[in-house]
Structure prediction request, 120 residues.
Amino acid sequence: MKYLILILIPFVLFFTSTTNAQDSRTVTFKLKIINHLPVGWGDKYQAVIIEEVAGSKIPFGDTIIFGYNDFSSPDFFTTGDIRTISFYNTNKQNPNTFLPPGSCTVSKLNEIWMIKEIKK
Prediction:
């Protein structure tokens, strides 16, 4: 019985660590759009973080700048709109000092976070 418990402990620790890692890879914010700039690859938005719905341990600050290039979506944002947006961590570092093209944002740790879901 003792050996069975010793064998199960690493499995339990591995399972809990992978579960927590999944949670830390996603962050959800309720945002108010305060600025919009069309760029060549899509649109660049600046928004105030109204509420951190999930993933509040991720350092983003009070405002966030994100890109959006899904032209098939009928929902384009305008200044003053409020949206709940989920981002997932790509585990890639931004090699530039500016926002890379695409539907993403960059955290204060210079990690690229792609847009996963947008809700009104």
